[in-house]
Amino acid sequence: MIFQLNLAAIVAIGGQAAWRKTKLIIIRDIIFVPIQGKLGIILRWWVVALTNHEVMPTPLGTLAANLDYILHPFDRRELSHSGFEDLLLASLRRVLIGFLLGAASAIPAGFSSGMSKSAILALNPINQLF
What we know:
Elements: H1 2-51, H2 59-71, H3 84-115, H4 117-129
């Protein structure tokens, strides 16, 4: 009985110590590393924007220029600035056209590669690039 209680206490203490280490690793991996990555990207953006200010705006300049779009995404503006729905439909249309063009070229190439050894030999260098 005493041995079982001591064993349970050892396991409990070991579990607590392991949880403390694991908790620090989880906090580091889930919170601090992503924040460092985002801050690193923003810092690089800022450095590039300050060295080439006529080519690229700073992060704060971009935020100030697009604040109205961020706060009111569904508003219709001038003729050149459509609402969110129009932009979404245009993007979906581009994605669909790209998919259909890719499928129109890849499906026949796949069928011909599957049916012919010479087609495999002809298309293999192109497949190795992509």
